[in-house]
Write a structure and sequence with these properties.
single chain; about 40% helix; binds magnesium ion; four-stranded antiparallel β-sheet
Length: about 250
């Protein structure tokens, strides 16, 4: 389980807060979607979980232990991270990109390659076709699959995904969303998924945490949030998609 307690981050000595007093629990095996518009603090929150950013105050615990008490390598092994944007190393082959964390962990080369092939197959990329290519030779959707495979390579129990499908066309995004749902069913990971897209949130989430200007507005199941928005902000956020859905349903 991942637990954030009174988490705050300021980058300008307290003049403004990227994240303010955020408390949140992510249960084992659930997909929690952090939903909010650009600049509301989603990436900062995610990066405080695996210590890419240190909080100004508050704590993060993973499986009951404060992340500052974990050694960085085992922490990063237990938490896969899919970066915003694509974030593959352009000079490395797909196989090498996928095996970055296993290499850091000192796995021997045969085990790394075997594992890279396994996770590439899991995201439906044939390792024989793609393994030796470089990221520049892949489509955006294929690169994003590699990003997911890389995050899964060391078999983490938690996955943090920062707008992983944000740069893709709508059709490719739909396919990858469905594949993520399948992977989640197959592997049972705990997932924190960041997006600004309400439909994506509704497609993927077990629970949604709505953020606004660094603060948590509401967290709850899709049904709870749609039926009982905790604030005018949350109500209006879902009002338009709800009207669209009702229109589509009536057709
Ligand atoms: N390294 C940084 N230095 C200064 N300000 C930052 C830094 N990272 C993020 N911020 C600021 O913190 C706020 C939240 O950013 P971010 O977490 O990236 O939002 P989101 O991912 O929701 O778009 C923004 O105002 C952003 O400009
Ligand atoms: Mg972001």
């Amino acid at each position: 389980m991942i637990r954030l307690t009174d988490l705050s981050k300021t980058f300008d000595k307290g003049r403004s807060y990227a994240v303010r007093d955020l408390s949140l629990e992510v249960q084992d095996g659930e997909t929690l979607v952090l939903l909010g518009s650009s600049g509301c603090g989603k990436t900062t929150t995610l990066k405080m979980v695996n210590r890419l950013i240190e909080p100004t105050s508050g704590t993060v615990t993973v499986d009951g232990r404060c992340v500052t008490q974990h050694d960085i390598l085992p922490l990063r092994r237990s938490i896969g991270y899919v970066f915003q944007g694509i974030g593959l190393f352009p000079h490395l082959t797909i196989e090498q990109n996928v095996a970055v964390v296993p290499k850091l962990l000192g796995w021997p080369s045969e085990r790394r390659t075997a594992r890279a092939h396994e996770v590439l197959s899991l995201v439906e990329l044939d390792p024989k076709v793609y393994g030796r290519r470089r990221p520049g030779d892949l489509s955006g959707g294929e690169q994003q699959r590699v990003g997911v495979a890389r995050a899964l390579a060391a078999d983490p129990s938690h996955l943090l995904m920062d707008e992983p499908f944000g740069a893709l066309d709508a059709i490719t995004r739909d396919v990858l969303q469905q594949e993520l749902l399948r992977i989640k069913r197959e592997l049972g990971k705990t997932i924190v998924f960041v997006t600004h897209d309400i439909f994506e949130a509704l497609t993927l989430a077990d629970r949604i945490a709505v953020m606004h200007e660094g603060r948590l507005e509401q967290v709850g199941s899709k049904r709870e949030i749609l039926a009982r928005p905790a604030s005018e902000f949350v109500r209006s956020l879902f009002a338009k998609p709800k009207a669209q859905l009702e229109l589509l349903a009536a057709q």
